[in-house]
Design goal:
Layout: E1 4-6, E2 21-26, E3 34-37, E4 43-46, E5 50-53, H1 59-72, E6 81-87, E7 91-97, E8 103-107, E9 111-112, H2 113-119, E10 127-134, E11 143-147, H3 156-159, E12 161-162, E13 167-172, E14 174-180, E15 186-190, H4 198-204, E16 218-222, E17 228-232, H5 235-239, E18 253-256, H6 266-272, E19 278-279
Parallel strand pairs: 1-8, 7-13, 14-18, 15-19
Antiparallel strand pairs: 2-3, 2-6, 4-5, 7-8, 9-12, 10-11, 10-13, 14-15, 16-17, 16-18
């Protein structure tokens, strides 16, 4: 897999990091000009000055810190320092989940979440509206959840910054399964807000078959504690408008038995979802 390197859009905002090799030029003092590498603690060590912490600073801020040390140490009266990066030490950003090209992207400076997803090939059709960003140790909070909309007016992905060392995971949208006596059994992706009710789910499955025992239709739901809750659905009353169709949750399973067949065990139904085809509706 090829690793992409993302250079900063604005070098003035580039933050120095351990491993960077800096080229320092001091005006009218060539004996002080040198190349120096930022050590693992984020420090550089310069002749006559000693150790200076520069990690996390921009080149302008680091140059100003060096000038201050030269002046305070009475080494130069009016020091003018120019810094350049001779060698970068980028950190990887891992992009996982529902993107077309998951993997690592070498990042030298913060970029928008929108850019990072684009560099990973964009989202797949199964992507939901939640993205997890996990930061390196020492950064608080360590985990950040980003919820967004695909509306052109939503600037969440543009405004959210991803930094070197982060791990980005694009979560899959919730899935509702419709199995048994329907014309297109399978899983249906709950895109965007994830709103889907029983009637809509059956419609996406192209309706029930002729031999479907709709009077025995069941909603099977996994509860937070791991238990399975099975609820009989009064589909005839729902169909006649006497009661509203229940709103479904991610991982719900609607089972429509077929007439004259034995009852299928709930455990067997959930096992069958791993082979169910997934459909995206628009």
């Amino acid at each position: 897999m090829t690793t992409l390197t993302v250079v900063p859009e604005d070098f003035s905002g580039l933050q120095l990091a351990p491993g960077f090799l800096l080229s320092m030029e001091v005006y009218d003092a060539p004996e002080l000009s040198t190349d120096v590498r930022i050590d693992t603690h984020g420090d550089i060590t310069l002749p006559m000055i000693g150790s200076i912490h520069v990690a996390g600073q921009t080149m302008t801020e680091a140059a100003a810190a060096i000038e201050t040390r030269l002046k305070d140490g009475k080494i130069l009266n009016n020091p003018q320092v120019n810094l350049n990066v001779s060698q970068y030490a980028g950190s990887n950003v891992s992009v996982l989940g529902e993107v077309h090209n998951p993997g690592r992207i070498e990042l030298l400076a913060p970029h928008s979440l929108e850019d990072i997803i684009a560099l990973a090939g964009g989202e797949t059709q199964l992507a939901g509206n939640a993205i997890e960003i996990r930061h390196p140790e020492g950064v608080n909070p360590q985990k950040e959840m980003v919820h967004y909309s695909r509306s052109s007016d939503d600037m969440t992905l543009v405004d959210t910054k991803v930094r070197p060392g982060d791990t980005v995971t694009v979560r899959r949208a919730g899935v509702v399964y419709v199995l048994g006596g329907v014309n297109r059994p399978g899983g249906y992706i709950m895109q965007e807000g994830g709103e889907l009710n029983l009637t809509q789910a059956l419609s996406l499955a192209y309706g029930t078959t002729i031999n479907a025992a709709v009077g025995s239709m069941r909603l099977i739901r996994k509860m937070p504690d791991g238990q399975v809750q099975e609820t009989a659905l009064a589909y005839r009353d729902i169909e006649k408008g006497k009661i509203p169709p229940p709103r479904l949750q991610a991982e719900d399973l609607i089972y429509v038995p077929i007439s004259k067949t034995k009852t299928v065990l709930t455990s067997g139904l959930f096992a069958s979802t791993s082979q169910a085809a997934l459909y995206v509706y628009h």
